[in-house]
Specification:
Order of helices and strands: EHHEHHHEEEHEE
Structural class: alpha/beta
Largest sheet: 5 strands, mixed
Helix content: 25-40%
Oligomer: single chain
Strand content: 15-25%
Number of helices: 6
Shape: elongated
Low-confidence stretches: 67-78
Number of domains: 2
Radius of gyration: 20 Å
Strand order of the largest sheet: 5-4-3-7-6
């Protein structure tokens, strides 16, 4: 599988289009599957594009039946990643019995209601992580380690 990461300006010249068309033809002739990520889409919403890529990779692995060929499970790193709108349960490594549940938001920050903005230290650390990941949270001049315990996809945030 191949991933192309080029911008629209890059593809606008005739020579670039011709080169890319030939490269694509050659790779597809060798049974490659290509996925394109436009730089403008990546800059606008990298989590969305990473999630799209993750789904494409998982679909391709499923098509290839990786478990059967390699006798190994699909790596956990390819499991569901934390995105905006997900509910996430974490605990700090030094406080394993204290669980923190948040819904990750890109518009709101209200920890008293369990809503955490993605630019807060914990939000930044958890975004893009997977279940079981050990993450580091930069809290002022102190780094704390936490574990992502659970990811519940696409929660709807309501404010009363």
């Amino acid at each position: 599988m191949g991933v192309e990461c080029d911008g629209a300006t890059y593809h606008s010249s005739k020579s670039a289009r011709e080169r890319d068309r030939l490269r694509q033809e050659v790779l597809e002739g060798m049974q490659w599957h290509l996925h394109r990520i436009w730089s403008t889409d990546w800059f606008e919403d990298p989590q969305r594009e990473a999630e799209r890529l993750r789904k494409v990779i998982l679909a391709r692995l499923s098509e290839l039946d990786v478990d059967q060929h390699y006798k190994e499970p699909i790596p956990e790193e390819l499991g569901e990643t934390v995105c905006i709108g997900d509910k996430v349960v974490v605990h700090y490594a030094d406080e394993p019995d204290r669980h923190i549940t948040i819904v990750l938001s890109n518009t709101m920050n209200d920890p008293s209601k369990g809503i955490l903005h993605c630019e807060e230290p914990l939000g930044e650390a958890v975004l893009g992580s997977v279940r079981g990941a050990e993450i580091e949270i930069d809290i002022g001049n102190k780094i704390r380690t936490a574990i992502v315990e659970e990811i519940i996809k696409d929660q709807i945030i309501t404010v009363h």
